[in-house]
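Dear colleagues,

As part of the handover before I leave the project, I'm documenting each prediction I ran so the next person doesn't have to rerun anything. This entry is a single chain, and its sequence is reproduced below.
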Amino acid sequence: MEKSSAPKRFIIGVNVITQVLLVAVVIVFLNLFIYRWHPPKADLSHNDYFKLSDKTKQLLKSLTAPVEVIVFFQPDSDDPVTHRVFNDVQFLLNEYKNVSSQIKVRYVDPDRDPINAEKLSKEYGVRDPNVVVFVYEKRNKFVPVPELVEFDRSGNPYGGGGNRIKAFKGEQQFTSAIQNVLDAKQPKIYFLTGHGEGDPEDYDQKKGFSVISKYIRRDNLLVEKVNLFEKQQIPKDCDVLIVCGPNRQLNELELNAIQQHLAQNGRAMFLFDAFNDETGLEKILHQHGVKIGNDIILSVGVYLGGKAILPEAHGVRYNPHPVTQGFKGEGFMTSFPSARSVDQATPADSSKGRVTVLVETSPNEWAETNLTKLRQEQKAEIDDKDRKGPVPVAVALEPSSAGEMEREGMRMVVFGSSGFIRNGSITGGNLDLFMNALNWLLKRQQLLGIAPKTPQEFSLSLTSFQQRAIFITEVIVIPSFAAVIGFLVWLKRRK
């Protein structure tokens, strides 16, 4: 009886294993079929990490010709940042492809595919790996890793620190790149010169603006310089005039040229600094409802282990406007060195347009008006003559109610600091604010309001007692319980 039951049990076992394998094969092929004809389109990541904004979807659905995306990466790099960014790029580009079939993505690994890597280098001038290249017709734009992530430097006041990623700006950069390569016409940005303004070709860390100029050019924009003492008029092909930190008086002809540019629905960005002399631009802006304060915004910080008064404003409040869309008041901060207050003039002339305060400091900062004492004694304390915080440090002027992107007419953005975009001061928040303001002036609304995504990090803190309890449970209790059950089953079968 026992001999005849053994083959029977073997056959039953084989039959069960075969059925399980057949079911598994059917499930696998069914999943492959579903994925082939109906690829997944849901973002199952925590907090919609890869979910695309409506503006990105709108841009992708408007594509009528293919946009090639070349991911020139080293996925097996020992650098944890590169490895993490590569994974995020993959998932994000899958979302782009799910929305539009015009997005064509190919991956080139220079370590495993040196032949294609060399072709890519010759064709598009890609010198270094770990960059995403967007190509449309004969136009292309590069997005390197440093532009995709923002690091947390809070642990090091000098800007160093570890490589913990604070924010992933993939969608913001990719959508901007697609928009840039689609634009056949390159808008021109003119920097005013001749009055001590910042030079877009100066590489000096403290005085130069070459870094911001590089970012402007990467957005498919042309950068030029104009000296009104020589030309006496703003070029007709000027899309945006930038006046960056003037410290000398403009003559009557130069002021008239700027007034004429604004009167002809021109676009302009003015950046002032504290302690600079009157330039004549203050009166023009006051006529349009913008007041430039004769002050400097101060904050209390820590220096050499003690409290110190610092000539730096920190933007922490962002009022509703396309320029500040997507900024989070508590998690997003901008820094403005040597800043002066910029506010709506009182009374405001509504016929000139609508003035909107964009950025305000914290309530703990104030605008110091006694500049003479501050210069001579290097001391300051808030009094009744000073303006208490929050202090406005940036405004926007437009010809209608705030947020009407398509309305034609003159536009301007005024900042109380030019130092916040100098070579040595560019941070993620400062750069995003400046580029948002520039895109708003250019009416490139597709590039506005796409906020960076914050990676979700989880940590588990256990006491020593909890650690011992887990160790005993996992290593001793559970294996012992399984062994006892197995031993009892063995005894029962033996009987």
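The CA atoms of residues 340 and 416 lie 5 Å apart. The mean pLDDT is 82.

All the best with the project,
I.
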